[in-house]
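FAQ: What does the model actually see?

It sees only this:
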Amino acid sequence: MSEPDFYTTIEKPSTAEFKDRGSKFIAYAFPIETAEDFKKQLQILKKEHPKAVHHCFAYRIGTDGNNFRSSDDGEPSGTAGKPILGQIDSKDLVNVAVIVVRYWGGTLLGVPGLINAYKVSTAMALQVTPIVQKQVELTYSIEFDYTQMNDVMMILKQYNCRVISQEAQLFCMLKTGIPKNRLQEVLYRLNDLQNVSVKKSG
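And it is asked to produce this:
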């Protein structure tokens, strides 16, 4: 199966709250690019909610289907992380994480109750944030003489390439995300320029 040219994700963070028999479930959904992004968010929420009994989560990154994680964080196995991931997947979202913070309300909810609470709070958070389609990008480094800046930028703009980072010394070094479905054209145009070197980067 070849990777798609586009993927669906959320544009900005959102939050939603669900209550059941005194327990409070606050779901935080946010866009992420890497597992590091996720870890930072988890640390922030743990500081914000030090009295919460559980910080359960799930995330999925990238379009190959292999980069995902879910955690029940002490809840009965399969009652939190899986339902959260299930909601992300039911909307075909990637580069998305959801953390559900639970405050204990004194009454046991049982396995079906927990599954429902994590599922519903996640679904609510994902409903209130815009879902967007983005292009799958491949990252390339371009090295060129600064006099060619305009030529290089013109090509990148024309094909909706994203500039990730840029440094200019004697030579300019530019890291760019090239839409997968325009890759051949972009590389062809860049390689056409004199003294411009293009190579794939991680």
